[in-house]
Automatic annotation (TrEMBL):
Family: Belongs to the ABC transporter superfamily. Drug exporter-1 (DrugE1) (TC 3.A.1.105) family.
Topology of the protein relative to the lipid bilayer: Peripheral membrane protein
Localization terms from the record: Cell membrane
Main localisation: membrane
Keyword Signal: no
Keyword field contains Cell membrane: yes
PANTHER family from the UniProt entry: ABC TRANSPORTER ATP-BINDING PROTEIN, DOXORUBICIN RESISTANCE ATP-BINDING PROTEIN DRRA
UniProt keyword annotations, A-Z: Antibiotic resistance, ATP-binding, Cell membrane, Membrane, Nucleotide-binding, Translocase, Transport
Origin species: Streptomyces blastmyceticus
Limits of the ABC transporter domain: 10-240
Any one GO molecular-function label of the UniProt entry: ATP binding
Name assigned to this protein: Daunorubicin resistance protein DrrA family ABC transporter ATP-binding protein
One Pfam family from the record: ABC_tran
Length: 319
């Protein structure tokens, strides 16, 4: 029998980091297979950005160990830097330079020769649909164009591992979709991507695997589909008038065993359920028996947003 060994592009074990009295990472364990996209999610202050800064050698860990592209981040940070590309939360382009000048500058900073720098800059400008604007100052670019230029700069060295920290924050839907397409192309070509994002739809679209960080450690790990299945289904009812909303919430709470979330603006009540026997006809019958006038009722799989809210809710809110 042949055993296939998984090769990890990013690996951390018991990673810890303190900032004074703040314990930012409390034993972070992470394993990202080569050629995959790992979505790193968590509430604000959970430790996502600290983890990225440690893995990209911008910070040193206080305890534990980590490897990126086979190199120890503490013992051989230079080798790690040669193997990675990083796009941070804000663009790093020089707005006084043209798009082409920016890429050539970054290429020379990476010690690429002049001819190689020019060739790679031209290829990336075309790949990111910036060819027509290549000779314009970056200050004339839209936010989406600057973000694409920043991402292009991180790919000049053809990195084995790409770190994307909130890559589409503040972008319009068209620009966000364009960056998603680039990420998909990169992973098809074998690049490993570690993605932090506040957009749950983005993680749902791109991530092969999701690691949920809370209080400095990974608390939940799985594919988007597996995480949704763990939560179960989501029942939602829209009622005819405001007075019926409390009654709908009571029925849903009794059927699902969980407090219903209310959306007064839509006159809707919703609750997650892991009961495989709960059906939409049963929900409608129970509402009818309780005298709740229903406009619409659905029973569907939860979105990743609902999974995130459920898994990061304080324990007392789940009681």
């Amino acid at each position: 029998m042949v055993t296939l060994m998984t090769t990890y592009a990013v690996l951390s074990e018991d990673l810890e980091k303190r900032f004074g009295k703040v314990h930012a990472l409390r034993g972070l364990d992470l394993a990202v297979p080569e050629g995959s996209v790992c979505g790193l999610l968590g509430p604000n202050g959970a430790g996502k950005t600290t983890a990225v800064r440690l893995l990209t050698t911008l910070l040193a860990p206080d305890a534990g160990r980590a490897e990126v592209a086979g190199h120890d981040v503490a013992r051989d940070p230079a080798a790690v830097r040669r193997a990675i590309g990083v796009t941070g939360q804000s663009t790093s382009v020089d707005t006084d330079l043209t798009g082409r000048e920016n890429l050539r500058l970054f290429a020379r900073l990476h010690r690429l020769g002049g001819a190689v720098a020019r060739a790679r800059a031209d290829v990336l400008l075309d790949r990111f649909a910036l060819g027509d604007a290549a000779n314009r100052p970056a200050r004339t670019y839209s936010g989406g164009m600057r973000r694409r230029l920043d991402l292009a700069a991180s790919l000049l060295t053809r990195p084995r591992v790409l770190f994307l920290d909130e890559p589409t924050t503040g972008l319009d839907p068209a620009s966000r979709t364009a960056i998603w397409d680039v990420v998909r192309e990169l992973t098809l070509a074998g690049t490993t991507v570690l993605l932090t994002t506040q957009y749950l739809e983005e993680a749902d679209q791109l991530a092969d695997d999701i690691a949920l960080i809370d209080r400095g450690r990974v608390t939940v790990r799985g594919t988007p589909a597996a995480l949704k299945a763990e939560i179960g289904a989501y029942a939602e009812v829209v009622v005819a008038d405001d007075a019926a909303l409390p009654g709908a919430a009571l029925v849903l709470g009794r059927l699902t065993g969980r407090p219903a979330a209310l959306d007064a603006g839509r006159r809707a009540a919703g609750a997650a359920t892991t009961d495989p026997d709960l059906t939409l006809p049963r929900i409608v019958r129970e509402l009818d028996a309780a005298g709740v006038p229903v406009v619409d009722a659905t029973l569907r799989r939860p979105t990743l947003d609902e999974v995130f809210l459920r898994l990061t809710a304080p324990e007392e809110a789940l009681a």
